[in-house]
Amino acid sequence: MTTNNYDYDYLIIGSGFGGSVSACRLTEKGYSVAVMEMGRRWEAKDFAKNNWNTRRWIWRPGMKLFGYFNMRFFRHVTIICGNAVGGGSITYANTLLVPPEHIWDEGTWADAADWKNEMPQHYAKAERMLGVTDNKIFGPADHMLKKMGEAVGVGHTFKPTRVATFFPPEGEEGGKTYPDPYFNGEGPDRGTCTACGGCMTGCKHNAKNTLDKNYLYFAEKNGAKVYEETKVVDVKPLNGKADGSDGYEVTTECSSSWFNKQRRTWRVRNVIFSASSLGTQEMLFRLKQSGSLPNISDDLGNRVRTNAESILGVRFFGKDVDM
């Protein structure tokens, strides 16, 4: 559908959940799509054995650390995010929960749509695409959590987490490879979970359902082009038309190089900002202040929410049990 005047119909900034889903659905409709990702592409064989190997785990290109895990510290919150092809899915804990109904009655979104009737179909489709299932492997930490719940009278609320993981068939050991179990053979071969606990340091067994194995996999299969180690540094409307009706000129550079930035410009019909909540807001603030996109609302940055996670450290005294 792209004309000679444009490199792509859509340029997507970020290859995480927002970017991968957008790329998948747009290519299904026949659009030409480019995905710009600051991080590298990782496969099971590439991940560091543990997170003491900071050069292969932490993403801090200014310090020559080219991993996939990033932490950003602010006054009241710490943001954990992933920099890799597949975004945060590469290094998140792959726990995916559907929110309770009362969530749709709260917040600034409460009256924007009939969420209680609209959202279940989308959650069901996302769960199917991401292979979400109940955790089938309980380790010492799970049993201890259940015991703690019973000790304070809430043991009945304990239940398996919902995770995007390919578990071995009943009676089989983990670590074996099977043909695509999710998309009628159209997806990649998969390995089964070994309960190694390395979800956040990169799944070395090809069992974690990261985006490069579903949404992004099919986007690329449908023709999307993913540019790794590529950072978007500017977005300007073409021909001075601030509404973007003539498209945009996007400038990129190499994210992992100190000197040879390999700067390049692209002409595209549309731009999708999906560089996580933090990356997208940072970029939009910069583009507004520089004058590249002066029409961005002054409301940008208000009413930002985290996902309300608290990471707790618990000391366990007793037998030498690996939690």
Provide tags for this entry.
323 residues, alpha/beta, FAD/NAD(P)-binding domain, 2 domains, six-stranded mixed β-sheet, two-stranded antiparallel sheet, 5 helices, 14 strands
What does this structure look like?
This protein has five helices and 14 strands. The protein has helices at residues 17-28, 115-130, 140-151, 215-221, 276-290; strands spanning 8-13, 33-36, 59-60, 65-66, 69-73, 78-82, 132-134, 162-164, 177-178, 190-191, 225-227, 230-237, 248-254, 264-273. It has a six-stranded mixed sheet with strand order 11-2-1-14-13-12. The chain has two domains: 1-94 and 210-323, FAD/NAD(P)-binding domain; 134-208, no CATH class. α1 (17-28) runs parallel beside α4 (215-221). The termini are far apart. By secondary structure, the chain is of the alpha/beta class. The mean pLDDT is 93. A hairpin with a 4-residue loop joins β5 (69-73) and β6 (78-82). The longest helix has 16 residues, at 115-130.
Please describe the topology of this protein.
Blueprint: E1 8-13, H1 17-28, E2 33-36, E3 59-60, E4 65-66, E5 69-73, E6 78-82, H2 115-130, E7 132-134, H3 140-151, E8 162-164, E9 177-178, E10 190-191, H4 215-221, E11 225-227, E12 230-237, E13 248-254, E14 264-273, H5 276-290
Parallel strand pairs: 1-2, 1-14, 2-11
Antiparallel strand pairs: 3-4, 5-6, 7-8, 9-10, 12-13, 13-14
Helix pairs in contact: 1-4
